[in-house]
Amino acid sequence: MDPAFGQAGAVPGGYPGPPLPPAPRRPVRTERDAKGTGVRIGALALLAVAAAQVHQHADPGVLCPLRRLTGVPCPFCGSTTVFMEAGAGHWGAAVTANPLTVVAVFVFLLSPLLAFDAPALWTRTPVRLRWILGGTLLAASWLWQLHRFGFL
């Protein structure tokens, strides 16, 4: 560190060099984050209960276009069922319907409380790794659905 300029990277001749980038700041959990997360979880719970009540009186049948046309479930099959079962208080059935959806919902709902920014972390991940992770998760979810519906 050059005492004349008080900055690292100073070169002889008086030019201080390029400025240093700001130090990364660690996110701090605040009461506002906790309240916002609580509101989101409460709203999601109310929506799940309302959807379960509507579904109980008027079953729309199969919503997945792939499954409706071919009988083969897609990797996202069961995502609607997750919310129906959770709204009815059947957590085991919700996890069984599509574990990937359950994990994704909790990660994104709780990320402010955990000082964990999932979307920012995903965008900072190298593209090749994103494709590998995404493909692996989709393949695992599809295998789960194929097993659940008796194709495997």
Give structural notes.
The chain is mostly helical. The chain has one domain (31-116, 125-148). Helix content is 59%, strand content 0%. It has helices spanning 31-57, 65-70, 79-87, 91-97, 99-110, 118-124, 127-148. Helix 1 (31-57) crosses helix 3, helix 3 packs antiparallel against helix 4 and helix 4 packs across helix 5 (99-110). The longest helix has 27 residues, at 31-57. The chain is flat. The protein starts with 30 loop residues before the first helix and ends with a helix. The mean pLDDT is 78.
Write the topology of this structure.
Blueprint lengths: L30 H27 L7 H6 L8 H9 L3 H7 L1 H12 L7 H7 L2 H22 L4
Helix pairs in contact: 1-3, 3-4, 4-5
A few lines on this structure:
The chain has 152 residues and is mainly α. Helix content is 59%, strand content 0%. The chain has seven helices and no strands.
Describe this protein with a few key phrases.
mainly alpha, 0% strand, flat
The H-and-E topology, N to C, reads as HHHHHHH
What percent strand? Answer: under 5%
Point out poorly predicted stretches. Answer: none
Helix/strand class: mainly alpha
Number of separate domains:
1
Q: Compute the number of strand runs.
A: 0
Rounded average pLDDT: 78
| Biggest beta sheet summary | none
Distance between the termini: 64 Å
